[in-house]
Amino acid sequence: MVFATENQGCWHWSIPWQLDAADADPDVWLTEDDAPVREEEPLSRFLLQFSLYEASMTAPYLAVLRDLPEQLLAELETCLHRVPLRSFLAPIVPTDFLVGPGVVAHVSPELNDGNECDVWIGALHRSALVPLSRLQLPWSRFDG
Length: 144
Description:
The chain is of the alpha+beta class. It has 2 helices and 10 strands. The protein has helices at 43-58, 73-76; strands spanning 2-6, 11-14, 29-32, 35-38, 61-69, 81-82, 96-100, 103-109, 116-123, 141-142.
């Protein structure tokens, strides 16, 4: 049963569904180009990942880092904390999450170069991004 669709990447996620199934937390399958692969987390944790991903992309205020050298990621982690989940979208582009007061971020490796990553940080209030402004990072967008 398909239960989620991502319209930009054209992916969808499904779970095996049977009326009398006993599994309360099934595996989630990601389909891209008709080749289903299993996500790292079961449905309960996948739903949290999906929510964090969408929040980091669609918040009204954003801070974005493109092609960030991975060694600079440690500087960002002085303000934010890793979410203790396995990678989201692992079969395509393994994505991890960071959170802090009023902000949620996702970190994805740059597909063209294994030593760089893209970071999207979303916030409901502009003031939540202000603490990040002290970091000497090459922001491509900063709404704080």
